[in-house]
Every structure is written in C-alpha cells, then in structure tokens.
Amino acid sequence: MFRIKKLDIFIAKQFGLLFVGTFFICQFVLMMQFLWRYVDDLIGKGLSLDILAQFFWYMGLKLIPQAFPLAILLSSLITYGNLGESSELTAIKAAGISLMQSMRSLIIVVCLIAGISFYFQDVIGPYANQQFAQLLISMKQKSPELEIPEGIFYDGLPNTNLYVQKKDLETGKLYNIMIYRQSGSFEDQAIILADSGMLQSTAEKKHLLLTLWSGEWFENMRSQDIGGTAEVPYRRETFGQKQILIDFDSGFNLSDADLSGNPQGKSTKKIIEDLDSIKQYNDSVGRRFYEEAQMYTLRLPYMTEADSAKLKTLTAEAVPDFDTLFASLSSEQLKDVTAGAARLARSAANDVQMKSEYAFYLHRQTRFHQIEGIGKFTLALSCIIFFFIGAPLGAIIRKGGLGVPVIVSVIVFIVYYIFENSGMRMARDDNWTVWFGKSISTMVLAPLAVFFTYKANNDSTVFNIDAYRLLMMRMLGLRQKRHIARKEVIIDDPKYAEDAVTLQVINQEIKAYSEDHKLLRWPSPVKVFFHPGDDHDIERINDRLEETIDDLSYTRDKIILHELNNYPILATHAHTRPFRRMWMNIAAGLILPLGLFFYIRMLRFRLRLYKDLRDIHATSNKVIEKISSFNQV
Question: Distance (Å, rounded) from C-alpha 112 to C-alpha 268?
Fold first, then answer.
C-alpha cells in the first residue's frame, strides 16, 4: 500500500521550489530566444502597451509546454545533486531506501506536469497560437514600409505590387524601384520605374505617401474612352520627382485573416477530424488527376469495349503507317506538325508539373497536421524522459547549485533540440516518415534515461574519470607506475625472511621463463590469432610478486619502500594475443590492416615484458640485500 512518508514530502518540497524557479528562468530564456525572430515586427511600429502585453502574453502561453521539460531536467538534477553533495543521499541509501524509492513522489509530480503540458498544448495552446498569429499578421500590416523585402515583389499594398532591389535601413530609402499598379480592369494598369524612393505614413495614419525620384511612368489609356479601337494606347511620362498617395489605414486593426488551416491552432480531436477530411479531399483530387491522365495521356490502353472491337476489325492494311504519313508531308506541314506536337508536349509537361506541385502542397498539409498531432504527445512524454535523465545524473554527479547542473542540462537540451528540429524538418520535407521524424528525439533520449537510471540505482561510477583514464591507458599500452606510501599505522611488521625467500624463488622463475619463452623472438602469427592459449606462467609469477610487495609495503624502512615503487606493473596478457576471446582474435587476424596493428602492438608488449623482468630481477636483489642487512644486525 502506498503511503506518503516524510522523505517523500521532503524531496517533493525541494523539487517543487527549484522547479518553480527554474521554470521561470527557462520561460524567460525561451521567450527571449523566440522574441529575436519577431523583433523586426515590433520595432518602429508605434504599438501601444496593451498590444505588446497581448503579444508577450500569448507568446508565453505558447512556450509554457516547451519550458516544462527543461525546467524538470534542471530542477531534478539540482535536487539530487544537492542531496548527494550534502551526503543526504548516502544517508537515504544507508537506511535501506533505494534511489527509485526516493524518486516515487517526484515521479507522480512529473507525471502530473506531463499531463498539464498536454492540456496546455491541446486546449490553451491552440487558442494562444491563433491569437498570436492574428496579432503578428496585424503588426506586419500596420507599417508596410518596414516590411518591404529586397529582390522580390511585395503585394502588401492595395492594388499595387512593389519591387525593390535594395533598401537602406538607416534612411528608409528604396533603390531601383519597379511598381505595377492595377486599379480596375486589365486596361487600367500602370508600370512605374524609379531610381529611388521613400514610403511613409501620413500624419492621420490613413494613407501612404510614396515619393519617387528620377523615373518613368507607363500607363494604359482607358479603352472605353477611345471609341471603337481594338488597341489600347498608353502614355509615357518622365519625371524627376513624383508623389503618389495610396489609401491605406496604418493604424493597428486586428486582422480577420482566416487561420483555420493552421494545425497549430487546433486541438488533437480537431486535427484527427480534419485529417480525415484532408485525406478524403486528397484522394478525390488524386482520382480526378488519374482520370484525366487516362483520358488525355494514357487514352490508348484504356479504350472502351466498342473502340477495342472496332480496332480488331481493322486489317493490317487499314491501320495507317505513321512514319509513311509523316514522310509524305511537305516542309510547311512538317513545321506545323512538329510545332503542334512540341506545343502539346509542353502543355502536358506544364500540366503534370502543376498537378505535382498541387499534390505536394496537399500532402504537405497532411504532414503538418500529423506533425502537430504527434508533437503534442512527444513533448509531454519528454517531461518524464528528462526527469529520468536529470535525477539519476544528479545522484551520480553529486554536485548541487547552478554550476555543473546547468552545464549538463544545456548539453542534454542541445542534443534534444538538434534531434527534435532535425526530425521535424525531415518529416516536414517528406524525407522521413512523420512518426519517425517526430519520435527520433524520444528514441535517442529514452535509452539514455534508462541507462542513467540503472547506473544510478546500482551506484555505478559512470562519470569516474580515473576509470576511463585507466581504460584508455590499458588500450594504448601506456605504463602505470606504483605509488606505495608509508603506512600511518602499522600493527605487524612484514615477514622479511619469508619475503626474501619468495623473491629469490621469483628471480629463479624469471630466469627460467626468459630462457624458455624467448621474448625477443617474433612469434608465429598463426599461433597468435588462430590458436587458443594464455601465458599462465607469467600470471602465477605476477600474483606471487604482488602478494610479496603488499606484505613488504607495511615496512618502516624508507629504502625498501623506495625499491618497492621501482617494481614495474606487469601486463600479463597483451604479449600473447590481442584479445581474450577467440573469435575476436580470429576476426582481427582476418582483417589484415587491423591484424598488423595488433601484431606490432603485441611485439611491443613482449619487448616491454622482457625489460620489466630484468628490472624485477635487479630490484628484488636490492630488496633481498637490504633484508639480509636486518638479519646481520
């Protein structure tokens, strides 16, 4: 039966206080990062404080679900880092409470936060996204002179398309301007070219004043004013400076744009309903395209039964020979036929291109809805995954505060952000399936969460730098030195006589071993990689030597302690074969470059073992001589 204990309340309080603080910090960081994307839409628009307050309010609501995972990661890491640093976690484990048992209250809290995150995305998020998008469109329409891009036509002005090659942001001047105006029918249009210009709002914010310098004005004359003529005459005007007044309300008016197609403004239920409608519409469009292809492009394979029966009744002589017909045409007829065929081919190609782009757009809408629907669940699930990364890491690192936890949290969140955004882009562009692109960050971080939780629950030293250093030294064959210091408390002295006899026996065994094994000779590669067997003789010698060194380490004599540190640490396996497993040795031997590397490495260890045995023999003689001096005294 689950009972709330004082430990659960204690840990939950610490986590709760840290979560509130880290949440506001993460929310502020995300809002500032998000604000940089729209800073150009805010500066210089003359927006009132209430509009800015609405902008930041809806932006904050949008980012709350994204701030939850990072806040959980940071707060859980700091919580267990503080417990480990103050030895409270050690006391908890000493009381027989495992790490998972101490985390049970926080697991419930984090699951509740994940539920709140999903609620925000499913209920509050769609409304906030719609309001935010509506505000953003209204802001862009408020001062169009700030929104004019370079190098493309801008259609934000009524009945006007404006092209600007270059724009000076400091002075607001526009250079190399082309304007296409159309106030009524096709005949009522004008093209204006100017070297430079400036677009400004009038004082009452109801019009835009476009000032142009050094340009030309081409305008069609109204056809109804020229009685009976089939052509539309135009006039041309060259000007040094001209001002055009455009009707435009520059005041802030909330846009009534249709945002019903935006999947970010829909709940999960609405997305599922709209996906059915979108797929049904896409299928109908696809069937229509297929029928048109059958009718126009693939007509021959899909003839009616009457046409097929009629074709069968024709004799071979009745079927026209198209090559003969083509050769019988005159040069003028050949030009007309080839031009007509090329025109039909271009028309068919353009039709297929248009249909493919439209089909891609329809399929893109489906993917957008699927991405948004799946993202609601993966973002809520990331809260739980980040907790099972942060809490075990805090228990392993055992560093509290905002130093190491912040660094670790940033690294983990960057990894998550890279995979999440990369997967989303690949799914959006139809390079990956939607479910794979949106779940790749979860698939990467979930095994890490399981690994860290398992290691922390079993008190494994995941981040023990010394263990990794020793592993790298062993892999690279780097030598490790002894560090034997004088003991502070010595109860029994070493057994000097027995140790001296043992060292003499070891010297004799070393001499016999060197004569038998011929360490300076090159061994057969076949025996090295394809025959089993280890060097048990050197293992036995090393074990007896280590026992003797351990016993002599309790001596009070400084000379013996100094000589003990001169004993080399033997590598008892690397001089025989690369690996202990037979199949790994065979694989290394079959791969020639890899086998050559390990063979040369083994020769190096054989030479080092030969030198180490000589050093052991010389050092043992010095120790034996020192022990003999004790007996003489």
Answer: 19
Structure tokens belonging to residue 373: 């629907």
Give the long-range contacts of residues 554-561, CB within 8 A, separation 24 or more: 554/487, 554/490, 554/492, 554/493, 554/494, 555/493, 555/494, 556/486, 556/490, 556/493, 557/626, 558/486, 559/626, 560/623, 560/626, 560/627, 561/484, 561/485, 561/486
The C-alpha atoms of residue 165 and residue 173 are separated, in whole angstroms, by: 11
Of 391, 378, 393, the C-alpha closest to 18 is 391
Helix (H) or strand (E) holding 157: strand 153-157
By the 8 A CB rule, do 468 and 405 touch?
A: no
In contact, 43 and 138? CB cutoff 8 Å? no
**DSSP 8-state class, residue 43:** T
Summary mean pLDDT of the chain: 80
Contact status, residue 23 vs residue 67, Cβ threshold 8 Å: yes
Helix axes 331-397, 49-85, angle to 10 degrees: 50
- If you count them, how many residues does the chain have? 633
* Alpha carbons 452 and 454: distance in angstroms, whole number: 5
What is d(CA 24, CA 70) in angstroms, rounded to the nearest whole number? 11
pLDDT value of position 591: 82
Distance separating alpha carbons of residues 539 and 548, to the nearest angstrom: 14
Mean pLDDT on 186-210? 75
Q: Has residue 383 got a pLDDT over 90?
A: yes
Q: Which helix (H) or strand (E) holds 3?
A: none
Closest CA to 570 of 519, 608, 622: 608
363 confidence band (pLDDT: 50, 70, 90): confident
The answer to whether residues 521 and 585 touch, using CB atoms and an 8 Å cutoff, is no
The two structure tokens encoding residue 269: 């239920």
For 100-140, the DSSP string reads HHHTHHHHHHHHHHHHHHHHIIIIIHHHHHHHHHHHHHHHH
Q: What is the DSSP letter of 263?
A: G
79: phi then psi, degrees, rounded to nearest 5: -60, -55
Concatenating the DSSP letter of every residue in 532-591 gives ----HHHHHHHHHHHHHHHHHTT---HHHHHHHTTSPPP-SSTTT-S-SSHHHHHHHHHS
Q: Which of 12-26, 157-171, 601-615 has the lowest average pLDDT?
A: 157-171
Q: Look at residue 562 and tell me whether its pLDDT is greater than 80.
A: yes
Residue type, 117: S
CA nearest 62: which of 387, 400, 372, 386? Answer: 372
Choose among 214, 221, 211: nearest CA to 176. 214
- Is 122 in contact with 267 (CB distance < 8 Å)? yes
d(C-alpha 169, C-alpha 157), whole Å: 20
Residues 6+ apart with CB under 8 A from 266: 126, 274, 369, 372
Question: Which residues does 1 contact at the CB level (< 8 Å), separation at least 6?
Answer: none
**What is the distance between the alpha carbons of residues 380 and 373, in angstroms, rounded to a whole number?**
12
pLDDT over threshold 50, residue 317:
no
